[in-house]
Amino acid sequence: xxxxxxxxxxxxxxxxxxxxxxxxxxxxxxxxxxxxxxxxxxxxxxxxxxxxxxxxxxxxxxxxxxxxxxxxxxxxxxxxxxxxxxx
Length: 87
Hints:
Layout: H1 2-29, H2 32-45, H3 67-86
């Protein structure tokens, strides 16, 4: 029984070593900019704000024109037209 326990402990130590080695190798071989771009893509698809968590990430996607600003400009124009008619 002692031999079995010793073999099991050795196997556990070996598997932990292999797992740690594989994890370190994978983390070092993936370019950080690709990881950041993928995280931003997933966040955009799901409507998440990751800029608070990852302030150094630069967005590679163009930002769409602000619809609120266009809407406000349209309202201002319509208000000016109504004021001109009232006078």
